[in-house]
From TrEMBL:
<feature type="domain" description="Glycosyltransferase 2-like">
    <location>
        <begin position="7"/>
        <end position="140"/>
    </location>
</feature>
<dbReference type="InterPro" id="IPR001173">
    <property type="entry name" value="Glyco_trans_2-like"/>
</dbReference>
<dbReference type="GO" id="GO:0016758">
    <property type="term" value="F:hexosyltransferase activity"/>
</dbReference>
<keyword id="KW-0808">Transferase</keyword>
<dbReference type="InterPro" id="IPR029044">
    <property type="entry name" value="Nucleotide-diphossugar_trans"/>
</dbReference>
<protein>
    <submittedName>
        <fullName>Glycosyl transferase, family 2</fullName>
    </submittedName>
</protein>
<dbReference type="Pfam" id="PF00535">
    <property type="entry name" value="Glycos_transf_2"/>
</dbReference>
């Protein structure tokens, strides 16, 4: 039986425009021990046909209605055979060395491993994330100290439950916060980014910022870290700034 070190899970919905870029990147990067599962939410465009034609890199896919990205991810987790699981967006892409770097980062000690990530907007890299070794932030766990896209999770972290599908944008943050006491993170630092995260997805769409902040406040209301009051104030000030910039709020208070 083929040993699966890492399962990559991608959720899709009407992703025909960006999916060829990702499947093309997988063809260059995929190595032995990597499994790719795609969970489609009953797309109405050409997504399913593209997935069917990508069977050389897509190990399994399903297409059926779902309640959003976190329900799709949970379906993928239940299908996964890998020792570690990562989530990569259908509008993102990977470098040719992405999966070899992921495999080389596995050490049996850390159950969460993040990787250098380029943030791309309008075809240009606007910043890079996870560029230095992980250090525990003073306000951990509300600040995890790493960016989540492409992060490996030990599959055992999902044994007590997956993502809360009632969240639409911040379910990954809620999952990490809920499991904070179990996490042993590290950042695998590389010379160049192994993943490119394209702004414009669900979590980075400006139209969803208010929903995201509302979900963050909701999850923090369940947690009791000492930094929660300060963090909520940071969220409030950031939210006020966004509202003013978008013209939804006027005045100085």
């Amino acid at each position: 039986m083929r040993h699966i070190a890492i399962t990559i899970i991608t959720s899709t919905y009407n992703s025909a425009e960006t999916l060829p870029r990702l499947t093309g990147a997988f063809r260059k990067a995929k190595i032995e021990g990597i499994e790719w599962i795609v969970v489609d939410g009953a797309s109405q465009d050409n997504t399913v046909n593209l997935l069917a034609r990508a069977s050389d890199v897509v190990d399994a896919f399903i297409s059926e209605p779902d309640g959003g990205i976190y329900e799709a991810w949970n379906k993928g987790v239940r299908m996964a055979k890998g020792e570690y699981i990562a989530f990569i967006g259908s509008d993102d892409t990977v470098s040719e060395r992405c999966f070899s770097e992921m495999v080389s980062a596995l050490d049996g000690e850390h159950n969460v491993i993040a990787f250098r990530t380029a943030v791309v907007s309008n075809g240009q890299v606007v910043k890079e994330l996870n560029t230095a070794p992980w250090q525990k932030p003073w306000n951990y766990p509300v600040n995890m100290g790493f960016s989540h896209p492409g992060t490996l999770h030990k599959s055992s972290l999902f044994s007590q439950g997956g993502f809360d599908a009632s969240y639409k944008i911040a379910g990954d943050k809620e999952f990490l916060l809920r499991n904070a006491s179990l996490l042993k993170p590290k950042i695998h630092v590389t010379t160049d980014p192994v993943l490119s995260f394209y702004l414009g997805g669900v979590s980075s769409d400006v139209r969803n910022i208010l929903v995201s902040y509302n979900e963050i406040l909701r999850m923090l209301a369940r947690a009791k870290p000492k930094t929660i009051v300060f963090y909520i104030e940071m969220v409030r000030l950031r939210l006020m700034s966004i509202l003013r910039r978008t013209g939804l709020l006027t005045g100085s208070h």
